[in-house]
Structure formats: structure tokens, C-alpha cells
Amino acid sequence: MRKIKVNEEEVEFLDTKDVEVLFEGLVQVGTKKGISEKLIKKLRKNFLNEMKKAEKTIKKGKPKLDELRKLRASTKQLEDMTKDSSSYPREVIEEILKSF
After folding, report:
1. How many CB atoms sit inside 10 A of residue 56's CB?
2. What pLDDT was estimated at residue 22?
3. What's the confidence (pLDDT) of residue 63?
């Protein structure tokens, strides 16, 4: 994880390796709860695409604060689901995954 400075604000940005580990945990939680692995893999693909777009804007020196905040909020929610999966019923996890 690294911090990106945008207009006097710092936003945390996960590396691709961290995201891969996060989704491995999400697959484990999902299979225990009976969630389609296809749904999780689709989210993973979309999420990695969004991260690549954000990475390009960072490399160009023009990061978008809203985009980075949205990605960080999403990763925090996914981290919370993997760490405290008992708090999230299957239906809630599915809805959250579909909303991304």
C-alpha cells in the first residue's frame, strides 16, 4: 500500500499484489457462503481494470481524487467482508459485489 498525494490530500492506494490477496480471501469467504465464484472473478477483473486506469493517471501525474477515494472505499469494504465475514449474510455480500 502506498499513499498518493492529490491536491494537499493523501489517499491510500493498494498495489496489485495486495488486491490479489484480498480477492483470494474473498473467494474463500464466498465459497463458504455459497456465492458464485464467477461473480467474484468478474468483480476482480473489473476492479483490476479500474486500478490500471488509476495507475495510469498517477503515472501521468494527474491522479483523480474522487476515483482514488472510490477505489479505497471499495477495498476497505472488501477487506471488512473478508475479515469479519460472519457479520455479512450471503445476500448482503452478493448485493455488495453486484453494486461494484
Report:
1. 11
2. 92
3. 87
